[in-house]
Amino acid sequence: MLPPDVDVAHKTGTMAAAINDVGIIELPDGAGHLVLAAFVNTLHSTKWRRERTIAQAARMLYDYFSAEYGFRNLSPLAVATCRAETLGLAAPHAGLDVT
Fold it and tell me: What is the pLDDT of residues 37-88, one digit of tens each?
């Protein structure tokens, strides 16, 4: 879900129903780096949904901290919603909480 030219260093892991990902994402225009650690554990979601949740959170935070979008006054969820509406995509999952 991140733009293809973004540099990312990360390590994934799984254990039973848990999916983990820890990574460093380079922000555009020398704006710095974003460090993300995610742990998603649920027996009620498929593996691809748990992985997608981590990817959506990474993109939401990338957009929020990226000077490219200039939305720093908004919450990460508001930024993701604006981005989705602009691109004609479905709004992010309302249950995703990154606070």
Answer: 998 887 777 888 888 888 988 988 888 788 555 555 666 667 666 666 655 5
Measured CA distances, 74 to 63, 65, 84, 87 (Å): 11, 10, 15, 18
Distance separating alpha carbons of residues 16 and 79, to the nearest angstrom: 33
Residues present in the chain in total: 99
Compute the CA torsion angle 65, 68, 70, 72 (nearest 10 deg): 0
Output the CA torsion sign for 99, 13, 25, 45: negative
SS3 content of the chain, % helix, strand, coil (to 5): 35, 25, 40
What is the DSSP secondary structure assignment for residue 16, as one 8-state letter? T
